Amino acid sequence: MDINSRGIIRKYEKKDYLDCIRIVNEIWDFDGRYFPNELAEFIKRAYFLTNLSKSNFTVVIEEQGNVQGFLFGKSGKESLYKTQYSGFRGTLRIIREMLSVKAVPLKKKLRYLWMQWIHERNRCKILPERENEINLFAVDPDAQGRGFGKLLIGDFIEYCRKQNAKTITLETDQESNYNFYYHLGFKKIGEFYSPSLKEYTGSSGNSYLFELELE
What are the two backbone dihedrals, phi and then psi, of residue 54, each rounded to the nearest 5 degrees? Predict the structure, then answer.
């Protein structure tokens, strides 16, 4: 646990799920972009828990008992966080749950799965491995600008240094505030097209990979 005047960083616990999902939805507005509600709920859940299951660094930052943000990342050989979407069985479960969503045509469900596969394929052409990576990072919009994001990323940087990592990577997109990462010393190392991002934003679909070199 890291105690700071601007918040307390601690391990993510299952009881934090609802607070974190709320933050995810306030930032990415899945409820306002996907219909019916069952589809939005599935996409939120799968997005959050899939990234959690790829991580062995899982922390939240809270202030006066309220979760203000979180960061999930991977570095070193510590065990990954287990969720219902972990591993190959988890991937099969995602497919099964997507296909079982009601009031969504089968063609549209298959298209969502195809778009995500294309996203990963295009990403892997630039960076095949997911090592020393920030998988999911978010700060409550009402708490942004108060240094919580910098604290979370700083904590992950220290963790990666202890794992003897040389670099840290992350994925973001054209619609996000990627200048924040430039400010922290990250540099863009690649760009790829994401049909799932284009579907979500209705914009370019341009996704970026950033990297921070550790001294």
Answer: -95, 5
